[in-house]
């Protein structure tokens, strides 16, 4: 009789242990799935910003003047991608709708990083 009680206690402990192990296995698998989805999302975002994105934001413009002439004009641009985007031409727009092409390679270019 006493042997049977010990056997029932051991089976009860094994049952609770199996439930706990099943629960923690489920939690570990769920956390692994969520972390893999996050890594996939970050990988896709990094690929998009590195290979396909061409976003640039114009922040502001400034100039420095002498007594009568403008000596230089500064453009502040924010690059929102993860790769460098070369600026090959800058266009000055008139109020009448025409475009005057201006290539920055004719003058001194100051690069601020």
Provide structural commentary.
This protein has one helix at 2-52, and strands spanning 56-65, 70-79, 90-93, 99-102. The protein is of the alpha+beta class and 113 residues long. A two-stranded antiparallel sheet has the order 1-2. Strand 1 and strand 2 (70-79) form a beta hairpin. The mean pLDDT is 76.
Features:
two-stranded antiparallel sheet; rod-shaped; 25% strand; 113 residues; 4 strands
Write a compact overview of the structure shown.
The protein is of the alpha+beta class. It has one helix spanning 2-52, and strands at residues 56-65, 70-79, 90-93, 99-102. The strands form two sheets. It has a two-stranded antiparallel ribbon with strand order 1-2. Strands 3-4 form a two-stranded antiparallel sheet.
